[in-house]
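> example.struct
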């Protein structure tokens, strides 16, 4: 059998109908045990199905605990509020400290507040 050049193969592909090309693809898949499906489509489906938990959560200060001053300092650090505003927020507990944040960020902030003596909940 004579070997075909790449140009000859391309020329013959240009002359084929869509049905003939489809049959050719199926024959190649069967012969070599491969698939012509794009792997990108599989990756896109996996990305869409990935989020299992909430995307945004709220960080709620339930109780101040024994060290009110320490909690106020952490609330100031977290929110960027002034001393008076942070104290007012802490005095209103239970109160949302930060809303619509990522769960990872909420977990870090919860840890800081708990180290200061507060009781915190992530909703």
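> example.seq
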């Amino acid at each position: 059998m004579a070997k075909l050049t790449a140009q000859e193969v391309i020329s013959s592909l240009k002359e084929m109908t869509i049905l003939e090309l489809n049959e050719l693809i199926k024959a190649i898949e069967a012969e070599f045990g491969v698939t012509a499906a794009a792997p990108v489509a599989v990756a896109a489906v996996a990305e869409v199905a990935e989020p299992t938990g909430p995307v945004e959560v709220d960080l709620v200060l339930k109780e101040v605990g024994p060290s009110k001053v320490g909690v106020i300092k952490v609330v100031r650090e977290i929110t960027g509020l002034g001393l008076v505003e942070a104290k007012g927020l802490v005095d209103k507990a239970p109160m949302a400290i930060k809303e619509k944040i990522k769960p990872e960020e909420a977990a870090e902030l919860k840890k800081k507040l708990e180290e200061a003596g507060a009781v915190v909940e992530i909703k």
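> remarks
Helices lie at 6-15, 18-32, 39-49, 68-79, 83-91, 103-115.
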